[in-house]
Design goal:
Layout (H helix, E strand, L loop, with lengths): L4 H4 L36 E3 L1 H18 L9 E7 L6 E6 L12 H13 L7 H12 L3 H12 L9 H11 L1 H8 L19 H6 L10 H12 L6 H11 E2 L16 H7 L6 E8 L3 E9 L5 E9 L7 H12 L5
Parallel strand pairs: 1-3
Antiparallel strand pairs: 2-3, 2-7, 4-5, 5-6, 6-7
Helix pairs in contact: 2-12, 3-5, 4-5, 11-12
Length: 335
């Protein structure tokens, strides 16, 4: 499904520690035993000094290059994971635990939660649900995302609610938070719909004046993408289906400067003339944020997850590819 740049611009876009979601402190986000994935073991990550040096340099060069455009050190967060050895995952991050409004990158979390529900038999796939899932990830449709979150949480938008009904609504809407808490994710909040304009009624009520906005870290996002790539968060077939939705063809050109395949990490692959590389990603932006979560494989054997979030410089589309180019140019030198 193709959408215009004007429509896509409405989309609410995109140190290492992984572990419980803290945005909500009440019982509504505590996982119960039925949410625990049988046999699930979180991936083990090894902090790599060499990767850390590379990522530090990549981010520093981008900050220096775009400082005249307003880019500051606290406007960038990034996480790099080397997947060349799946049994020894090396990682590095810059401000990787900083909570940032994720915009459409959150849709990757909703996709995973949906696949978990389908695998557990708690949700039944229908043609309409399949259409919504595809549009949420491929076209980054906010309307599709609203529908998917309704299915996941058995809720719907509408008028403001009285306290008793609102408590029930809030408890249901924290279903995805509880799921990721059960997988030992930390420092994130994934319970809000995405909108092209604004939320109204109970959706605005649930935002609590902005205190309950969606929040992600590049660490958590990189971890999830790695788990999808390695088939660890759901079964192998469902992981493959998720990757199919995130596959991006960055070849050629696009008239849409914000196309997910051509407007983010794909720029770096084209600049480096890595035409035979493969890219899977979930990107997005708002007027203040520009993010990309990418998994890349290159013909010379590189396999990496690179997640970059930027704030307050959303119009500068070359920041993310500048960081990606530095990483791709030098990762092969690190063993």
């Amino acid at each position: 499904m193709k959408i215009s740049s004007a429509i896509f611009r409405c989309i609410l876009v995109v140190g290492f520690a992984f572990g419980a979601i803290s945005a909500q402190t009440n019982d509504s986000v505590k996982p119960n035993k039925t949410m625990m994935q049988k046999g699930f073991q979180p991936l083990a990550f090894e902090n790599s000094p060499a990767l850390q040096t590379l990522l530090n340099e990549a981010v520093s060069e981008a900050i220096k290059k775009f400082s005249s455009k307003g880019l500051k050190p606290d406007y960038v967060a990034a996480t790099l994971i080397d997947l060349r050895d799946a049994n020894r995952l090396k990682t590095a991050s810059v401000r990787g635990e900083q909570k940032i409004y994720p915009a459409s990158v959150v849709k990757m979390f909703y996709m995973t939660a949906l696949e978990r529900g389908l695998e557990d038999g708690k949700i039944k796939m229908t043609p309409e649900l399949e259409r919504g899932l595809r549009d949420m990830i491929v076209s980054s449709s906010n309307e599709a995302t609203q529908y998917i979150l309704d299915v996941l949480t058995d809720t719907s938008s509408g008028a403001e609610l009285e306290p008793k009904e609102f408590k029930i609504f809030a408890d249901k809407r924290n279903h995805v938070n509880r799921y990721f808490t059960s997988l030992d994710y930390q420092n994130i909040n994934v319970n809000q719909k995405t909108f092209c304009e604004d939320a109204y009624g109970r959706e605005q009520q649930f935002r609590d004046g902005g205190k309950n906005r969606n929040m992600l870290t590049t660490n958590a996002t990189a971890r999830l993408l790695t788990e999808i790539v390695l088939g660890k968060v759901v079964n192998t077939e469902r992981s493959r289906l998720m990757l199919d939705l995130m596959k991006r063809d960055f070849s050629g050109t696009s008239t849409d400067a914000d196309d997910q395949a051509h407007g983010f990490t794909g720029i770096a692959l084209n600049n480096l003339k890595l035409k035979d590389a493969k890219l899977w990603s979930k990107a997005g932006w708002t007027s203040k944020t520009r993010h990309d979560a990418a998994y890349i494989e290159t013909p010379d054997g590189l396999k990496l997850v690179l997640v970059v979030f930027t704030e307050n410089t959303a119009k500068e589309r070359d920041i993310i590819p500048t960081i990606a180019e530095k990483v791709l140019d030098n990762l092969g030198k690190i063993k």
